[in-house]
Write a structure and sequence with these properties.
Number of helices: 10
Number of domains: 2
Bound molecules: aspartic acid
Order of helices and strands: EHEHEHEHEEEEEEHEHEHEHEHH
Organism: Streptomyces monashensis
Protein name: L-asparaginase
InterPro entries: AsnASE_II (IPR004550), Asp/glu_Ase-like_sf (IPR036152), Asparaginase/glutaminase-like (IPR006034), Asparaginase_C (IPR040919), L-asparaginase_C (IPR027473), L-asparaginase_N (IPR027474), L-asparaginase_N_sf (IPR037152)
Radius of gyration: 20 Å
CATH architecture of the largest domain: 3-Layer(aba) Sandwich
Distance between the termini: 37 Å
Strand order of the largest sheet: 2-1-3-4-5-6-9-10
Structural class: alpha/beta
Shape: elongated
Oligomer: single chain
CATH superfamily of the largest domain: L-asparaginase, N-terminal domain
Family: Belongs to the asparaginase 1 family.
Keywords: Hydrolase
CATH topology of the largest domain: Rossmann fold
Length: about 325
């Protein structure tokens, strides 16, 4: 039975949206952030605001994000229509995907933030919060998993990237485009993302702590010397290869040797598009690397692949389970 009046729960973390500016005192609370949003009270959506983890996006941990998802999940189980999370934009593309992987509800889990501080001219936080609450409460957005709403665009956590360091239009989904838009206050969903069985959210915290996954971005003339001994310190590796998933020929045997000890996932460093599976044959090509045991990351960018691999390792998945999960979600 529902115990809560229908509405939206807003969980406020840190980030630019909460930074009052130099010499202006402490970080803004969730109540202060929402009080500054024109039109929010008139929406007619009951809003319950809670403060959690007031840290910059760059300091968030997997464990904290899973705690936020658990809070959000409880709110939905108690009757909330949807949840909004405000946070720093630096890690939004990763936290959103982590939440999406474990989010079991139809109710929207919406993440937002701001590129400009509240005291700056053209601050984008208020408009982003307003749009995020509209999406969280919208019937149209149900069943779409975790969504990222900024600049009146609705992005799937699965595809969204932060593509600019300062521009308020920083968030884009280069491989797919936005799922929807907020137009004249209406949530217009144009696409529905594919949904998969959620992964378990109740991850053992010690296991999560030790499920370290490294990311190696391949660069010109890269011999991969810094990967030496990685199997002793990490449980998995994501390789951000050139273009369609290529590495220098000299690096291929090193990656193959690592793949004998831990899961190594191949992605592209380009920022959009997928890695290939069987188009090129040269040493260091995608075909060669797959033969050497690397797992195909598909369309997942390096950062999202790292999130998925760490979560899988933390939930005890073996190599086959990991390969299957990447085949399904990559
Ligand atoms: N450095 C900030 C953060 O992620 C940037 C932002 O919020 O836009 O906390």
């Amino acid at each position: 039975m529902r115990e809560r009046a229908l509405g939206v729960v807003l969980l406020a973390l840190g980030g630019t949206i909460s930074v009052p500016g130099q010499a202006r005192g402490a970080r803004l609370s969730g109540a202060e952030i929402t009080a500054a949003v024109p039109g929010l009270a008139e929406l007619g959506v009951p809003l319950e605001v809670r403060d959690v983890h007031a840290v910059p996006g760059g300091s968030l941990t997997f464990a904290q994000v899973l705690d936020v998802v658990a809070d959000a999940s409880r709110a939905v189980a108690e009757g909330a229509d949807g949840v909004v999370v405000t946070q720093g934009t630096d890690t939004l593309e990763e936290t959103a995907f982590l939440a999406d992987l474990v989010w079991p509800h139809d109710a929207p889990f919406v993440l937002t933030g701001a590129m400009r501080q509240p005291a700056m001219a053209g601050a984008d936080g208020p408009a982003n919060v307003l749009a995020a609450v509209r999406v969280a409460a919208a019937r149209e957005a149900r069943g779409a998993g975790a969504l990222v709403v900024l600049n009146d665009e609705v992005h799937a956590a699965r595809w969204v990237r932060k593509t600019h360091s300062t521009n308020p239009a920083a968030f884009a989904s280069p491989s797919a485009g936005p799922l929807g838009h907020v137009v004249e206050g209406r949530v217009r969903m144009l696409l529905t993302p594919p949904r998969h069985e959620p992964l378990p959210a109740d991850v053992d915290r010690e296991r999560l702590e030790t499920a370290r996954v490294a990311l190696h971005v391949v660069t010109l003339d890269d011999d991969g010397a810094r990967l030496d001994g990685l199997e002793a310190t990490h449980r998995g590796l994501v390789v951000a290869g050139f273009g369609v998933g290529h590495v220098p020929d000299v690096l291929a045997p090193r990656l193959g040797a690592l793949a004998a000890h831990l899961p190594v996932v191949l992605t592209s460093r380009t920022g959009s598009g997928s890695v290939l599976r069987h188009t090129y044959e040269a040493p260091g090509s995608e075909t060669d690397l797959r033969r050497r045991g690397l797992i195909d990351g598909g369309f997942l960018d390096p950062y999202k692949a790292r999130v998925l691999l760490r979560l899988l390792l933390a939930t005890g998945a073996g190599r086959d389970g990991i390969a299957e999960a990447f085949a399904l979600r990559g």
